[in-house]
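Annex B. Sample input.
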Amino acid sequence: MSLPNKWIAHIENWQRSGLKQADFCQKHGLNYNTFSARLCDYRKREIQSRPALIPVQVQELSETSDKAIILKHRNGHQLDLPSTISAAWLAELLQCLG
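Annex B, continued. Sample output.
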């Protein structure tokens, strides 16, 4: 769905405003339900336009380490995978996470 530029401008102005959605809509005479629906469209559009690649950091592991792959999320979560993990399984996991 193509999102009109006026709604993109409203959403980006709201994001910069620091206001709650309802307060922003009231201040600018916008229908809250319509704004929420356009925001949903905007977010879907943003997700679809993101590149499929994710940033990675490669580090050498010590010789005594039994971990082949460590996936770290910026919020601190970490997934340690053994060296026996299948490349197909890992590709499917990354597809689901992407």
